Amino acid sequence: MDIRADSRITRITAPSTDVLKSTCRGCHGGCSALLHVSNGRITRIEGDPDGPLNHGRLCPIGASALQLVQNPARLTHPLVRAGARGAGQWRRASWDEAYDIICENVRKIWARHGKEGIAIGTGTGRHHCNFVPRFTNMMGTPNWCEPGTAQCFFPRVNTMHMTYGGMAWSDYRGERMPSVLLFWGHNPLYSSPDGEVGFQVRDALRAKPKIIVVDPRRNQLAEQADVFLQLRPGTDDALALAMINVIIADGSYDKAFIEKWTHGFEQLAGRVRECTPEWAAPITWVPAEKIRAAARLWVQAQPGAMEWGCAIEHTPNTIQTVRAISMLPALTGNIDKPGGWCFGMRGPAPFPFLPEVLPEEQKAKRLGAAEFRMLGGAGSLVPSAHIPAVFKSMREGDPYWTKGFLVFGNNSLSTYADARLVRESLAKLDFLMVADLFMTPTCELADVVLPVAAWPELEQIVAMPYFGEDVVLAQQRGEQVGECRADENIMTDLARRLGLPRCEESPRDVFNQQLAPLGITYEQLAKNGPVKIPMKYGKYLKKGFDTPTGKIELYSTRMEELGYDPLPYYQEPPESPVSTPEIAREFPYVLTTGARLPMYFHSEGRQIPKLRKGRPEPQAEIHPEDAKKHGIAQNDWVRISSPRGSMLQRALVTTDILPGVINCQHGWWFPERKGWDHGIWESNANLLTSQAPPYDPAMGTYQLRGLLCKIEKAEAPEAA
Ligand SMILES: Nc1nc2c(c(=O)[nH]1)N[C@H]1C(S)=C(S)[C@@H](COP(=O)(O)OP(=O)(O)OC[C@H]3O[C@@H](n4cnc5c(=O)[nH]c(N)nc54)[C@H](O)[C@@H]3O)O[C@H]1N2
Ligand SMILES: Nc1nc2c(c(=O)[nH]1)N[C@H]1C(S)=C(S)[C@@H](COP(=O)(O)OP(=O)(O)OC[C@H]3O[C@@H](n4cnc5c(=O)[nH]c(N)nc54)[C@H](O)[C@@H]3O)O[C@H]1N2
Ligand code: SF4
Ligand SMILES: [Mo]
Question: What is the pTM for the complete model shown?
Answer without folding.
Answer: 0.97
